[in-house]
């Protein structure tokens, strides 16, 4: 009994395997390329081995490696066998997918229990666990959309999206150049700089601060994205109007956060600066701005996402015939859903890279902050 | 004392608002002037400066509508029209509000569920949390039109697609806030629960849940604003018949600038209202739990 309890997923996996064995074959009888006897047996064998190994007391690393290999090999074979047979999968197919997913889940749980000994190992684990999880989202997505024959329009499988990305690189590059390199970057830099300068001004003039801060707080809750059509009307269809939307959207988070950050330095430190007879600007540069850095970077991170959203949504209101938002809205109209997903994948990648760059810059500038020390 | 605080807070805000309105008027005169000058030249009208300024502030389709025009439009379309009328702002706001609230409710529930899972299952914490954070670096709003159009293709229309987008936008702040909140009890309190031999379930209801309430309401404020944005953007692509987003789009198609600004104001009022309501709810819960007002 204790042996069974050791791996709930293992028990469940074996049960699923049994049911799948009874309900063979994997595909409908009239499928053009049915699974061969050997392949089916191999898949079942792999899953069974994985499930059985999860009970064995052979050391965690060994178990994890066996699980890692068996679960993903089985999933790979299952997905490989579906090509040409879209929509023909039967219950047993999905049971086996679920079984291999359970093994993957078991693998993640085992990994999460590991107490890493060295720092590199910690980093590797921190990357590996989410990577396996993400891979399984893609595997399930691929297997279910293709196995069940879900209409292409509703949800294209990841492989089709990947094909589309590699097949239309020039178009994607042109869209990125228009939307990201022109509108987003310009708007982001100007918006953040403007917010920062106004925050310094507000810091100098107490009256301004007391007046601007409530308004800034209110504005950051409002649907500012709604100014997009107005900006398009003022500044025309090209990237300038998108940059204007981005400026308006990024201004207020920067303002509010910088003002909050400038108040973050302790009074003892400020008194110390005063006892050194340092002036306003010296105190600002040497004490208060460094102390405000975590807040400023927080705003920069928030803004990195807002800027992308602002530029893409603003393109829905009118644009020259290039740009990510334009591509999304027109390809939707033509029901080329894979192109839309390709644009979204690119946007996601750029968003993550953008965020990552800001986060790295934060690491470099605020290395002294408790949240960055000692890893 | 109280009076003094009031004046030191209210006066600066009012001054800034007054300055903004003054700049707005100047911008309206300056931006509308070229068109008005053109109009006058064609009609062979010569007008004094004051008349000219008056005319720039009362164009039917100005580049920048003057504040009083917008206020008048909002007032007319809010109070003077039947609520069921297609031009009534109340009607459009209601359409947007309903999908916002539906999405917000789903999003909050989903966010709390995910947070509970993350706090209690270690594997979820390690594997799901990085993806939740990564999902926020993705311009989610970009998929709003796709979700709406795709769901319309399989005959799911109306409230649900819009609510889905609101859900997606609002679950994140709640999930992150609740994870922080559910982990906020001190080790000492958790140990106390253990000495009482409390089950995980009891610890959750009697310690973690109450401790997370302030975090929940703070993140709900962010979430409700986000789900309103989601609902508005979701109304853009469909040529949706109703809602603040469709009003914005229609305004931009037909250059009805005043309508556009009015829709924007309506959206802002809605946002301010929703955030205030959540804030009041948070304060009521706080008081019920015995937090002293400071």
UniProtKB/TrEMBL annotation, chain A:
Matches recorded under CDD domains: TM_PBP2
Subcellular location(s) of the protein: Cell membrane
ABC transmembrane type-1 domain residues: 194-364
Domain of life from the UniProt record: Bacteria
Residue ranges of the TM segments: 40-59, 66-85, 91-112, 124-144, 180-202, 214-237, 243-264, 306-328, 340-361
Keywords: Cell membrane, Membrane, Transmembrane, Transmembrane helix, Transport
Membrane topology label: Multi-pass membrane protein
A Pfam family: BPD_transp_1
Name listed for the protein in its UniProt record: NitT/TauT family transport system permease protein
Species whose genome carries this gene: Pseudorhizobium tarimense
Lineage of the organism: Bacteria, Pseudomonadati, Pseudomonadota, Alphaproteobacteria, Hyphomicrobiales
Automatic annotation (TrEMBL), chain B:
Keywords: Cell membrane, Membrane, Transmembrane, Transmembrane helix, Transport
Entry's localization field: Cell membrane
Main location: membrane
Domain spans labelled ABC transmembrane type-1: 93-282
Membrane-topology descriptor: Multi-pass membrane protein
Source species, domain of life: Bacteria
Any Pfam family matching the protein: BPD_transp_1
Keyword Signal appears in the UniProt entry: no
Sequence intervals crossing the membrane: 12-31, 94-119, 131-153, 215-240, 260-280
Sequence similarity: Belongs to the binding-protein-dependent transport system permease family.
Protein name: NitT/TauT family transport system permease protein
Organism of provenance: Pseudorhizobium tarimense
Phylogenetic classification of the source organism: Bacteria, Pseudomonadati, Pseudomonadota, Alphaproteobacteria, Hyphomicrobiales
């Amino acid at each position: 009994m204790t042996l069974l309890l050791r791996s709930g997923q293992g028990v469940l996996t074996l049960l699923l395997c049994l049911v799948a064995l009874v309900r063979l074959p994997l595909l409908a009888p009239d499928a053009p390329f049915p699974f061969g006897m050997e392949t089916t047996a191999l898949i079942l064998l792999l899953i069974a081995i994985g499930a059985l190994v999860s009970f064995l007391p052979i050391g965690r690393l060994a178990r994890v490696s066996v699980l890692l290999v068996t679960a993903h090999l089985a999933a790979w074979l299952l997905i490989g066998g579906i090509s040409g047979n879209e929509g023909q999968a039967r219950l047993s197919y999905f049971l086996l997918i679920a079984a291999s997913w359970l093994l993957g889940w078991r693998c993640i749980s085992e990994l999460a229990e590991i107490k890493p000994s060295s720092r590199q190992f910690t980093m590797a684990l921190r990357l590996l666990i989410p990577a396996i999880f993400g891979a399984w989202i893609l595997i399930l997505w691929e297997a279910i959309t293709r196995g069940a024959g879900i209409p292409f329009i509703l949800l294209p499988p990841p492989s089709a999206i990947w094909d589309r990305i590699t097949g239309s690189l020039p178009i994607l590059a042109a869209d990125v150049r228009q939307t990201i390199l022109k509108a987003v970057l310009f708007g982001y830099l100007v918006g953040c700089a403007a917010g920062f300068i106004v925050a310094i001004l507000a810091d100098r003039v107490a009256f301004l601060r007391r007046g601007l801060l409530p308004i800034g707080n209110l504005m950051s809750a409002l649907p500012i994205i709604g100014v997009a059509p107005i900006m398009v009307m003022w500044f025309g269809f090209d990237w300038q109007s998108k940059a204007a939307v981005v400026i308006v959207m990024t201004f207020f988070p920067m303002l509010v956060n910088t003002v909050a950050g400038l108040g973050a330095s302790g009074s003892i430190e400020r008194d110390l600066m005063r006892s050194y007879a340092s002036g306003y600007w010296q105190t600002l540069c040497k004490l208060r701005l460094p102390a405000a850095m975590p807040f400023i970077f927080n705003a920069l991170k928030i803004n990195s996402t807002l800027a992308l959203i602002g530029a893409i949504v603003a393109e829905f209101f009118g644009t020259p015939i290039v740009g990510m938002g334009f591509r999304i809205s027109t390809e939707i109209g033509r029901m080329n859903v894979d192109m839309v997903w390709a644009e979204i994948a690119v946007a996601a990648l750029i968003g993550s890279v953008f965020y990552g760059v800001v986060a790295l810059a934060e690491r470099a500038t605020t290395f002294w902050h408790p949240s960055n020390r000692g890893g | 004392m109280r009076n003094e605080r009031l004046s030191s807070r209210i006066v600066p805000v009012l001054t800034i608002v007054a300055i903004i309105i003054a700049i707005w008027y100047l911008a309206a005169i300056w931006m509308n002037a070229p068109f008005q000058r053109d109009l006058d030249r064609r009609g062979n009208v010569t007008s004094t400066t004051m008349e000219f300024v008056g005319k720039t502030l009362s164009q039917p389709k100005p580049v920048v509508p003057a504040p009083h025009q917008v206020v008048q439009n909002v007032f007319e379309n809010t109070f003077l029209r039947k609520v069921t009328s297609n031009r009534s702002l109340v009607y459009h706001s209601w359409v947007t509000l309903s999908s916002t609230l539906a999405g917000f409710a789903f999003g909050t529930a989903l966010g709390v569920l995910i947070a509970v899972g993350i706090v209690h299952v270690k594997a979820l914490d390690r594997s799901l949390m990085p993806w939740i954070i990564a999902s926020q670096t993705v311009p989610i709003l970009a998929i709003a039109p796709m979700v709406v159009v795709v769901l319309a293709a399989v005959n799911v229309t109306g409230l649900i697609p819009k609510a889905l987008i609101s859900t997606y936008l609002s679950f994140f702040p709640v999930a992150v806030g609740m994870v922080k909140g559910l982990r906020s009890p001190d080790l000492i309190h958790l140990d106390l629960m253990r000495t009482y031999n409390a089950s995980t379930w009891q610890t959750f209801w009697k310690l973690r849940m109450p401790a997370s309430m302030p975090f929940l309401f703070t993140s709900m404020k962010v979430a409700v604003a986000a789900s309103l944005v989601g609902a508005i953007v979701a109304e853009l692509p469909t040529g949706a018949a109703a809602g603040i987003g469709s009003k914005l789009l229609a305004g931009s198609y037909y250059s009805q600038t005043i309508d556009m600004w009015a829709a924007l104001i309506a959206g802002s009022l809605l946002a301010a209202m929703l955030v205030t309501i959540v804030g009041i709810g948070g304060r009521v819960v706080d008081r019920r739990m015995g937090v002293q007002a400071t």
